[in-house]
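Quick one:
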Amino acid sequence: MYATPVSAMTTSPYAFNMGTVAAQPFLSPAIGDQFTIQAGPRLIGRFTTPDGYPASAYELSNGHKAVIIDTHTDIASICTFVKTGSSYERAIFKSPLYSPTGPKSGIAHLLEHLLHPLTWANTASSLGINFNAATETNSVKYYQVGNANQLPAMIKLNYQSIAKLDVTPKDLAREQEAVINEGHMRMDNDPMSKIIDKRYELMDDQPVMRQTLGTEQDVRSTTIADLKQFHDHFYNSQMITVIAGKVNDAQVLQQMENTFGKIYPQPRTDLDVGTRLALRPGEIRSATLVDPQLTFSIVDVSFPAPRKTDLKERLAMEFIGEFFSGAQSPLEDDIVYQKRLASRVGLDYAPMGHTGTFTITLETTPGMERQVLSETLGQVGKLSQWMLTPEKTEELRNKLMYKFKRELNNVEFTTHIVGDEMLSGSLPYYTQYLDLLKTITPLDIFQTAQKYLNPASYAVVFGVPVGRNNG
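Output:
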């Protein structure tokens, strides 16, 4: 599994030339405060999906980006991405648009509820279309999946749901209660959600407002004027819509121009927001959450990790995640099966715009938390001392390749990953994933582990039952 130990390594240049994928300006939508109205849509780039389907990127007359992917499938998917989210609510990110304390927490999510009410979902359902929306840290997306012959209706529904904010005080009160109830279900009754909040606080060093939900006080005090201001600033022409399925480019593009292309190109100053790592090299941060709903303990340990645009390190971190996953992994074999210190091990790697996090979450018996943490750090530290064998590296490569290829058959996966990566300026991660995967070596994995998975620099949250300490 491991090769010989490495006591000292010098960083060698990656064999993969990042310049071959970075010089594609259409992949990162330009956002500024000057716009030029053009006569109609224009082609700004083409690429091929990893499974060989042609994709064309267009800019509508108002600047809205539209990506059309002809997958030749009878199932079609559309996803519109708005470049906003809970990161844009944080008080530290000042904007002339808002008061010195920034927009209210939870406003992006509340607005999503109001723009995507049950009536729109019911309308879509009556047409055999699945219509949903989601608010994330750095984006809000509205997405549908249905038969390809329903694509015109899907485009119309997506446009109608987000183009205009038409809300009454009654509508606002209804959705405020819905969001607050969602908060109680997701946060107050879920210890793991509270632990994740604590994790963000330790890693990000910024106030976390119940993830995307916001505080109850902020949600209740949000006014229609607040929502309109937020909508006018972010829901303008600088959005991305990705469409995949059996499509006719000309027909889809014309409908996109007649709908999304009519959204007024309002000026906006883009804010450089996003999670920034607070954890310093050699620093350890910890917190303990005592929760009456817990009957076992949780050890949640997080390390810094590569950001989205660090493609080579990002792929190497995926190898590390795969290495530590499953019953055959050295981590689970040691801690769960051999030493019986934990009952479950979970892993999560979340690359983001400015940073990333690699998290290992373990369930254990109260009183064993510190021992579980020590064993976990020991297993993680081995990757910084030993290189994986070429055979183990190839095994992990094949597993990652299989997982990715399995997802390629899903048009919804295609629209989501293309839009997500375009917003981050990292589309080559998707378009060249299989080629990138082939370039990862044991040295790449070792260097990435050395850089990020430092057993002397991490954040840990202990979740423990009432009346117990953290070991």
